[in-house]
Q: What sequence folds into this?
């Protein structure tokens, strides 16, 4: 008797089976007036063929538009060309060899107001003394009809990149005095204007 030597190696990869419902996508950051970005968990399916991201206006959920994605490794997408101050619902669906998953739960997203049509007003004057930090800025160069109801937000931080900035002032005045600051400390500031 005896056994023959082992022959050539063969391999086969098993499939995932039926497609399972993916988790709902997540909003990344804040929605802009005409866009937002969503992300999702990578699929656990070993035979994923594609991921589809659908968007629908909340009022007409029956009409979903596929906006993304054929690349298997994609896990985020920015949806552009949207309408300001509108409600959208985003869903995710996966396709594997055995078929297509049910739609994920929906993520509700509301786009923001249209941003003002001017650049943020730069700080014209920023001084500090024993009483605090004094900031003042000019009125934007706009038509008087565009200036109604402007709101200014003054952000301050201890880092130049403003990575941990907080709102130190919010209102319609064009100056602010901030007190209670740490002595001998450099503060960085930036201004945001909205209407």
A:
């Amino acid at each position: 008797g005896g056994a023959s030597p082992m022959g050539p190696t063969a391999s086969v990869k098993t499939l995932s089976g039926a497609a399972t419902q993916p988790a709902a996508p997540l909003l990344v950051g804040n929605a802009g007036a005409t866009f937002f970005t969503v992300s999702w968990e990578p699929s656990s399916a070993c035979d994923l063929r594609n991921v589809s991201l659908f968007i629908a206006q909340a009022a007409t959920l029956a009409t979903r538009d596929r906006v993304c994605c054929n690349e298997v490794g994609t896990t985020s997408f920015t949806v552009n060309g949207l309408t300001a101050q509108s409600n959208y619902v985003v869903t995710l669906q996966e396709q594997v060899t055995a078929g297509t998953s049910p739609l994920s739960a929906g993520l509700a997203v509301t786009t923001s107001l249209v941003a003002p049509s001017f650049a943020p007003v730069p700080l014209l004057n920023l001084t500090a003394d024993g009483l605090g930090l004094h900031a003042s800025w000019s009125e934007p160069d706009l038509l008087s009809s565009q200036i109604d109801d402007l709101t200014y937000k003054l952000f301050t931080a201890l880092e130049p990149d403003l990575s941990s900035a907080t709102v130190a002032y919010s209102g319609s005045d064009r100056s602010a005095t901030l007190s209670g600051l740490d002595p001998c400390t450099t503060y960085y500031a930036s201004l945001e204007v909205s209407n």
Q: What stands out?
A: The chain has a mean pLDDT of 81. Residues 144-147 form the longest helix (4 residues). The longest strand covers residues 48-57.
